[in-house]
């Protein structure tokens, strides 16, 4: 079992009890007109407008930089990894992928599915400006099952992505990410990862948000004629209309998840002052920054024994602040 990696003690308790704090920003929700616009888009022009509005709403969530943003991104990374596994013919669902990560020791073989999760967790955790470096690309390509024989392929890919980021508009950048995958003979599942990284860098986000979790739906030829001028020809396999539709739908799902996790995080922060166990603040901080934690082992940094850690999670479940996610009697996993 993996030891829970915990951060230094945080001032969460002081934060939730301090008087005179500035009121929290209102929850970002998806307006009904935007849902209708995304569903009703029939042309590239319609899809472009709807996607722009969806991304702008998602941008509002990202820029709030809430305490639960880390958990949000990692929960999206888990969903992205499960979708990628399905599209590559694997059988692991979210629960199996979560187990492969949490129930192994650092450095152990997590299997092909677990490697996919590590790739998406990389996107969610690393600073956005570092995602498309040669070093980062080489690592994530291996996690997606592609092993470059030399550094030339990675270098060419990094150069192509740099050109996309500096010369293409939003639509060209999106289609170009998929074109780069085809043009370099990479696993098709890399397309969403690269598109998400490019979007984060274009919008100036500190961290990318895993949203494009699957390949677009629709015929390959239905929108070729509508691709914007200058779009690489290889992107014809991924018509702009369907890429935009996938991005818009994914953005709405991410916004909906943020509203759900915000409610759960507010509950966790509200009960945090009631926790008397030594190291409880550190555990709360970790819950706000990751998808889930395994309560199989204590950690010296918290001063909590295995039994004490399990009691703390039982107390949090009793207070309605966290959920047990595994459904097992042993090796239980907890998260928002």
Structural features, described:
With 336 residues, this protein is mainly α. It has helices at residues 12-17, 32-40, 44-64, 69-87, 94-102, 111-125, 134-143, 151-167, 170-183, 190-203, 240-271, 280-289, 306-318; strands at residues 293-294, 323-324, 333-335. Mean pLDDT is 83; it is low at 1-22 and 218-237. Residues 1-25 are annotated as: Disordered. InterPro entries: DUF1403 (IPR009843). Pfam families: DUF1403.
Topology of this structure?
Layout: H1 12-17, H2 32-40, H3 44-64, H4 69-87, H5 94-102, H6 111-125, H7 134-143, H8 151-167, H9 170-183, H10 190-203, H11 240-271, H12 280-289, E1 293-294, H13 306-318, E2 323-324, E3 333-335
Antiparallel strand pairs: 1-3, 2-3
Helix pairs in contact: 2-3, 3-11, 4-6, 4-11, 5-6, 6-7, 8-9, 9-10
Region (Disordered): 1-25
Protein name: DUF1403 family protein
InterPro entries: DUF1403
Q: How is this structure best summarized?
A:
The protein is mainly alpha-helical and 336 residues long. The chain is built from 13 helices and three strands; from the N terminus they run ααααααααααααβαββ.
SSE pattern:
HHHHHHHHHHHHEHEE
Instruction: Count every beta strand, where a strand is a DSSP E run of 2 or more residues.
Output: 3
Could you tell me the mean pLDDT?
Answer: 83
Number of helices: 13
Helix content: 55-70%
Number of domains: 2
**Cα radius of gyration in angstroms:** 21 Å
Query: Which structural class is indicated by helix and strand composition?
Result: mainly alpha
Strand content: under 5%
The unreliable regions are 1-22, 218-237
What gross morphology would you assign? globular
Major β-sheet profile:
3 strands, antiparallel
**Largest beta sheet: what is the strand line-up?**
1-3-2
Distance between the termini: 21 Å
């Amino acid at each position: 079992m993996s030891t829970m990696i915990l951060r230094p003690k945080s001032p969460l308790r002081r934060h939730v009890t301090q008087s005179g704090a500035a009121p929290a920003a209102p929850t970002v929700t998806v307006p009904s007109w935007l849902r209708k616009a995304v569903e009703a888009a029939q042309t590239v022009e319609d899809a472009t407008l709807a996607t722009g509005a969806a991304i702008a709403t998602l941008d509002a969530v990202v820029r709030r930089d809430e305490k639960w943003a880390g958990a949000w991104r990692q929960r999206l990374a888990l969903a992205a990894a499960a979708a990628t596994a399905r599209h590559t013919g694997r059988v692991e669902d979210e629960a199996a992928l979560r187990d492969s990560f949490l129930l192994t020791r650092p450095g152990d073989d997590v299997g092909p599915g677990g490697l996919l999760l590590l790739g998406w967790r990389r996107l969610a955790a690393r600073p956005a400006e570092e995602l498309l470096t040669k070093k980062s690309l080489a690592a994530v390509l291996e996690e997606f099952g592609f092993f470059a024989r030399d550094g030339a392929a990675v270098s060419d890919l990094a150069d192509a992505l740099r050109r996309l980021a500096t010369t293409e508009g939003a639509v060209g950048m999106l289609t170009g990410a998929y074109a780069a995958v085809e043009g370099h003979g990479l696993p098709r599942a890399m397309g969403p990862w690269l598109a998400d990284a490019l979007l984060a860098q274009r919008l100036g986000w500190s961290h990318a948000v895993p949203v494009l979790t699957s390949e677009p739906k629709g015929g390959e030829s239905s929108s070729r004629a509508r691709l914007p001028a200058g779009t690489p020809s290889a992107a014809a396999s991924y018509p702009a209309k369907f890429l935009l539709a996938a991005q818009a739908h994914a953005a709405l799902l991410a916004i909906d998840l943020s509203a759900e996790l915000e409610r759960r995080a507010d509950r966790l922060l509200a009960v945090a002052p009631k926790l008397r166990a030594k190291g409880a603040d550190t555990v709360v901080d970790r819950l706000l920054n990751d998808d889930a934690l395994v309560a199989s082992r204590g950690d010296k940094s918290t001063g909590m024994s295995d039994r004490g850690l399990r009691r703390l999670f039982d107390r949090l479940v009793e207070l309605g602040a966290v959920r047990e996610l595994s459904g097992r009697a042993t090796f239980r996993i907890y998260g928002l």
